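Q: Sequence in, structure out?
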Amino acid sequence: MKHLVMLGAGHAHIHLLSTLSTQALAGVQVTLITPYPRQLYSGMVPGFVAGHYTLEDCVIALEPFLRNSAVTWLKRSATALDATLRSVTLDDGSSLSYDVLSINSGPVQDRQKIEQIMPGANEHALFVRPMEHFAALWPKVVELGQQEPLRFAIIGGGAAGFELACAVSHRLPGAAVTLLSGGTPVGANYPAAVQARMTQVLKKRCITVLQESACAMTAGELTLSGGARLACDVPLMAIGAHAPGWLQGSGLALDAQGFVAVDAFQRSTSHPQVFAAGDVASRQDVTRPRSGVYAVRAGPPLSQNVRAVLAGIEPRPYLPQAKSLNLLSCGDRSAIASWGNRSAQGRWVGWLKDRIDRGFIQKYSISKS
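A: Exactly. Output:
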């Protein structure tokens, strides 16, 4: 019997799990490795921070999929991978062999790397990832912020930093919020018109923007790259995703940032029995930004190709769309939309984002009864 190991429960694997609950893989043993019993949908986290959603609104439970399939769930995390031996080492020291491996573990924030460039971050920063940990801590921060005004520093000027800065400002209107965008303007990866809209929103929310980085943290204070010191009660780490450290030494071909290099079939360019999708993967034949939109849409082709390879059928190439609709929440129920060089803004965009996000949750929600 062949063994398919699914490492992680990201967006693409949620789709694969949904297909396994209705159409089993004949002659294939399937094991899912993930430490959490649910997936917290990242697109709704800013709305959770802002107070528009409860945590339960933002999650997809795995148990109904597992109950309706023959998938074995191991409540563990990977610590090492040997692609030559086809073996995954888990955090309890055990190992698991596979015939086909699919990696969709989602992005991480490498605390060791961050600590090296921002000493004190491990002790003082509130990290957005793992999102389960962040979601557990955020209500406690809100409770404290309702008792006394807090000073927040949002570290990271990308989409996550912008959305979280706006969400914090909306949820805790008495807080002082500063956004540290590093060496680039806020939303540097977006077209100029979108950047202008983001800047306007931040100004309207009275959020201070500093084009500097944090280079050290102590209790109540950040040291900035320009040498100044910034009073801060809650440094919120919203910098971009890192590749999981266990990919190093795995034998898999990686890109310059350490993500799994994959081909048009979403297979490793060095080990065709390994698939990868979402933020952990890096397509070598196309250039696309890391975005939840692409991670979600990778689900159906990943499922089809994993099934094909296990059945001895040639997989089909998958070409991500050239453009995608990007929606940025603005703290209140409004949002900014961008499609290529076009953009729009308003509460109707916020309604559209809410409809799309809730639709994703509902699509993969199975009755617990």
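Residues 13 and 104 are 6 Å apart (CA to CA).
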